[in-house]
Amino acid sequence: MLPVVQIVRRPGILDLGWGHPDPALLPVAALQRATATALERYGADALTYGAERGPGPLIEWICARLAQTDARAPDPVDVIITAGASQALDLLCTLWTTPGDTVLVESPTYHLAVRILRDHPLELAAVPSDADGVDVDALEALLARLARRGKQARMLYFVPTHHNPTGSCMSLERRRALATVAAEHGVLLVEDDVYRELSYDDPAPPSVWSIAPPGTVARIGSFSKSLAPGLRLGYVTSHASLAQRLIGSGLLDSGGGLNPFVALTVAEVCTAGDFDATVARLRAAYRERRNALAKGLHDYLPAGCRFVVPGGGFFQWVELPEGIDAGELLPRAEQSGVSYLPGSRFYLDEPRRNTLRLAFSLYSPDQLVEAAQRLGEAIGRI
Question: CA-CA distance, 292 to 150, in Å (whole number)?
Fold first, then answer.
């Protein structure tokens, strides 16, 4: 039988490489109710070609939600519904870039976004980042080097809030500086903001989109982390002119709105109050799992290992002692019954090979503590 889901389970291995939600946390009952309500409310209109921008009820809800969770709310003309965050990035690449254009990517960065960028194809260049986010001074120096070669960066992809893979949050000062530099140099900032709802300690900081000059940022949001990834539903907030360019694409002209039935169903989830209830449940569960993994790492990792507990998202970044290559360690870790993604996968440029990413979203707190113990044992045997 052909598989139904993406994840591959390996008996005996706690695989913290998968940034997937625990299926037990997904809101099956809420989506069942919303599906029936959407069909009852909209009838055949829910099943036909949808409005290119996406259904009005969901767009209106997104605008109201961002008024609560961000520094400013978008106008409905700034919003377009997409088939997930990945499709949003692909659509931006299609309509905003030409093969061979220079696109900047923070380093380290979400490795699968890099695959999308390379599909087009584009000339990618890495911008260093640290605990405060993209290094804006390094960005300006890179833009100057490109200018001397007669090139201009077309856009910059980055994840400023609960970063994948490091879990860090870009400081407000850096967000403002980045927006200023991008506006001065005509670089479109593509802000991957899919973890905004999953903040476990303090509210998420303002998005770069919310504080940047108009037209500087295309911010990507998603329901994959806050509801369920199988919905394949996301959105872009940008300037109305860019939103109109996306709406006028051949893809949307041919097929109407992206995922219109799912979008109407999610609108029912949101307006019924089930989104708030689901997010509250996810935050509580993931906070407990984050804390359990952090305690396990504190208790079981050998001296010389370093990590900073993330304020949100799915991921814990770990630095091993210098001289230990996480890629070379991986087979030994899997022999001990734990797996992860080596940090080298998240770099365009020279990788820090003594780093690794752990996802705490999929497993129970007890399993995460056990995974940390197994990892510590594997490191200790080197």
Answer: 51
Output DSSP code: residue 257: S
Sheet with 341-342, side-by-side order of all strands: 306-307, 315-319, 355-359, 341-342
Tell me if 188 sits within 8 A of 96, measured CB to CB.
yes
Q: Strand, helix or coil at 195?
A: coil
The encoded tokens of residue 174 equal: 């850096």
Cis check: omega of the bond before 160, within 30 degrees of 0: no
d(Cα 52, Cα 188) in Å, to the nearest integer?
Answer: 23
CATH classification of 28-272, choosing from 3.30.70.1130, 3.40.640.10, 3.60.15.10, 3.30.300.30? 3.40.640.10
291: Cα within 13 Å, side-chain hemisphere: 8
CA nearest neighbour of 264 among 37, 86, 30, 27:
37
In DSSP terms, 237 is beta-bridged to 79, 219
First vs last C-alpha separation in the chain: 41
pLDDT at 253 over 90: no
Q: Amino acid identity of 48?
A: T
**For range 275-302, the mean pLDDT:** 98
Q: Which residues of 273-310 are buried (b: 16+ CB within 10 A; e: fewer)?
A: ebbeebbeebbebbbebbebbbebbeebbeeebebeeb
* Alpha carbon distance 381, 370 (integer Å): 17
CATH topology of domain 14-19+276-380: Aspartate Aminotransferase, domain 1 (3.90.1150)
Answer whether 372's CB lies under 8 Å from 293's CB: yes
Q: What are phi and psi of 81, to 5 degrees?
A: -85, 140
Question: CA 89, CA 85: separation in Å to the nearest integer?
Answer: 6
* Helix%, strand%, coil% for the chain, nearest 5: 45, 15, 40
Q: State how far the Cα of 315 lies from the Cα of 163, in Å rounded to an integer.
A: 8
Q: What is the pTM of this model?
A: 0.97
Q: Does the pLDDT value for residue 349 go beyond 90?
A: no
